[in-house]
Amino acid sequence: MIKNLLLVAFRNFKKDKWYTLLNVLGLTIGITFSLFLIFYIRDELNYDRYLEKSDRIYRIVSYIQERDKNTNWTLTQLPVAATVKKDFPEVEDATWFISRERTLFKNGENSFYETKVYYADSTVFNIFTYKFLEGDVAHALNEPNSIVISKSLAEKYFGKNTAAVGKTLKTVYDLYKVTGVIEDVPKNSHLRFDMLISGSTLLKGRQNDGLNNWGNFNNFTYVLLKPGTNVEAFNKKLVSMYKKYVEPLFAQFNIKMQYGVQPITAIHLHSNLEREPEELGNMSYIWIFSAVAFFMLLIACINYMNLTTARSARRAKEIGIRKVTGSTKKQLVLQFLMESLLTALMAVLLSMLLVILLLSVFNSISGKAFTIHTLLQPFNIILLAVIVLFTGLVGGSYPAFYLSGFQPVSILKGALSNASGNVNLRRTLVVLQFSISMIMLICTWVVYSQLSYLRKKDLGFNKDQVMTVTVNTGEDERSKIYAMNNEFRSLPGVKIVGTGNSYPGSANSNLNLFTVETKNGHVDKAIECYSIDENYLGALGIPLEKGRNFSIPSDTLHSIIVNEAMVKHFGWDNAIGKRVKFPGDTSGNYLEVVGVIKDFHQKSLYNPIAPLLLFYGPNSNIIQLKISPANIKATIAQVESSWKKYFPQLPFEYKFLDEDFNSQYAADQKRGMIFAAFSILTIIITCLGLLGLTAFTTQQKQKEISIRRVLGASIAQVVTMTTKNYLWLALIAALIAFPVAYYFMYKWLQIFPYNTGLSVIPFILSAFVIVITASATAMFYSAKAAVTNPAKILKTE
Predict the structure, then answer these.
(1) Band (43; pLDDT cuts 50, 70, 90)
(2) What is the pLDDT of residues 232-249, one digit of tens each?
(3) CA 7, CA 24: separation in Å to the nearest integer?
(4) Distance CA 570, CA 101 (A)
(5) Pairwise CA distance, residues 643 & 473, whole Å
(6) pLDDT (tens digit, 9 = 90+) per residue, 389-404?
(7) Short-list 439, 640, 600, CA closest to 505
(8) What is the pLDDT of residue 596?
(9) Three-class SS state of 92
(10) Which of 326, 502, 670, 785 is most buried, judged by most C-beta within 10 A?
(11) C-alpha angle with apex 526: 521 to 528, nearest 5 degrees?
């Protein structure tokens, strides 16, 4: 029986090649790109789950409460790890990481800047499980100046198939011994590194300053809880640590805080804290992409229903004869379901091929690292089987039961139009397709507009043609920086050269506690701050609102510049002359405001502008060069030549401020590109479904159209009659899509303190695209029916 069903199915495929191709094409597109979305979703949901003890690993975080501001940090103080292990029996082990600044490492002629470098406690591998390729995991980070490096880093410095353990890497001042090599940290980790330096290296010679310092927040702390621990109860017990060690220090400044714990597996999608080590995901996108993947499959199934139903006129006599000759409804249902499952199987096989061919493209768009092995994982193989069954049975169920339900007498009399099935159901399905397509188009337009707004908004400084170079070296090199900057200024393509130890978009600014003068006395406040020289404001085009810029040598000790947000925050009527000092300083030293700059965005537009305080600091290691837009390549070459004269031991690297600042939106840019691509694909799949419905309608109305043509109706009148039905469907879809899209996009825009708001333009344009698409498709088929010779259609009457 199965063999007979297969033979009949393949015969029908061969008989109607174009319908088979259209069916397979629609399903293939839907399945292929649903698979990509499923890969993306699984990868996002599986962050940090590769760790063997991931269900028991938690990060301790800090919630700091000032009088007028709350700061929620991923960072804690260094003593926290040792304290929780000592004071709380629930803690099986604890460890910490401290990020190291960009550093040049060397081995012979190989020298590279490394950014993914952390100091780590020796207990780190008791909690975080990484595969050791070389070295002893138990003692890898016990000794000062010992390091564990990734496989990629080992190959970069020492070559492939060469043992790295026992070899050394040098910085300007230190020598580090490789004691272990591990597999690369997976990309789906919330904290990625290429090198771990033993924590004892950092603490060497300053034990009291480190392990007993409860005032500095500069490290990530993780705990491994014992099996069966009540996490909520443990979280509440952390109050006792705050009261014992931190409250006596913070109470004098009217600052409160509390500790909390985060499951490590929840960090990537659910954390909303400051100072995350890597880009975070967003759970709202997971829900959106899940819905898109489901609806793409659903639309593909709807297309199959419509296209198969549209074929019914061609297969009506076959069905009638089969019934007359004894075929039962069950046999006919099995036949159609077999064809549907085979169509789905062909589509899945083609989808697997397309996935393999397009993997690199999707990886480029999404920032992921999927491989062929991803497709062949057991979960995905099972998923493909489920997709075959889902699309085959769901997509083929309606046509199977609908077509097998035709009455043979009516069919053989040619009265198929009297048994045309549920027209309202098909129209409902098309409205659903239109609605989904319209929602995705609206969302794509809004996302694109917002991301474009982020790139183009006036940030309060001029980021164009500002080149940044960083000298990672010691204090004794400041004189070289001074001399090099003077040479930079003499270059014809360089307009201004300024220095600072931070810049817009950088994470280098500090948050320090200050005692600030106000009209009601003094208040203690944590304020962002960093050092700049007298040329920094000019290099970045930051205008002064009041007062003056720094001048030499009068401003080397006491002068500061603040932004408008700080003036407003403290209610200063006249900021010039206002004084700030470090809390507890009884020496009489103070800092005095000499200038107020206009507000500019030090951070991305995800963050409102905060109070900012700028010290005077000449010859900082981060150099900003405002260069002429003419002949930029020649200017870069001249800058590099000057660099090599003063720092021949350091590789020359640079970046442009506009690209660096916009990189903060990279994650949303990637998601926006994915969403835009899938919106276009949804429209393509919808068009295929519309072809099916239009083909069915025109087939059913072919004789009516022919009679109208005989009676004098023009082609335009016939086309208009058919097309207006789809315009009504598009209008109904708009009534559904508009409020749904408005709700979700309004919620999404609230993420941004600065956003474009919602205008009617994306809604109107999206509806217009769907109307034009629907009209063009309907006009094509109705025009084709209208130009058919009526005699050919009516000759059997």
Answers:
(1) very high
(2) 999 999 999 999 998 888
(3) 18
(4) 33
(5) 13
(6) 877 777 667 666 766 6
(7) 600
(8) 94
(9) strand
(10) 785
(11) 120
